[in-house]
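Student: Please help interpret what follows.
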Amino acid sequence: MRATLHAVPVTLGGAVGAALPPPVIETLRELTDFVVENSKSARAFLSTVGMPRPLRELHLAVLDEHTPPSSVPALLEPLRQGRSLGLLSEAGCPAIADPGAALVDAAHREGFRVVPHIGPSAILLALMASGFNGQRFAFCGYLPREAQARDRRIRELEQRSRREMETEIFIETPYRSDALVGALLEVCAPATRLCIACNLTMPDESIAVKPVGDWRRSRPSIGRQPVVFVLSAQT
């Protein structure tokens, strides 16, 4: 079998069996080498998969936001030695809003086969649940931290959504989510629709869609829950 880089989604918090198809789980069980965003969360995830060997016998290398680009090619060494390699994000799909994209790019540059596997993506799940335009959408990542720059970016996205008939999707670190909600409710027009999708795939999942004017009358408190924001200013 040709050595392959397997991009495998990680659960968002729900049960593995409900999030990953059996063939994906079987592929995971066959691997001994992984590149992961966070070793602690990766070991916790792999422990739920039923790996056939002790976790201590697996080799986990870290690729995160602090990894220098010059260090990425060395992470492909298992592939060079003929062993397939698993790529795991901290949660959701690797290489989407995730530093793992650099490893995928490096694998292609060296001619290795890359296989993306089926699994949960909070970004796409939120879009599916929003009811907004799924024919034209953009994932905008994180908005600026500084208030003035953040507000300016929100205005730009709202205008683009209206002008291009485009759905805008973005995320925030949990400890800044409530501040982002406040900015959205202050900056956006009352008719602009906002989806707030929290804890996707988990038992306490919450997905709500309202015009900004309605959100202002019942402002949510998100706290430190993982959340995806979806915005549509289309008329």
Summary: The mean pLDDT is 95. Residues 4-116 form a domain with the Cobalt-precorrin-4 Transmethylase; domain 1 fold (CATH 3.40.1010.10). Strands lie at 4-8, 33-36, 59-62, 85-88, 113-116, 137-142, 167-171, 193-198, 206-211, 227-232. The radius of gyration is 19 Å.
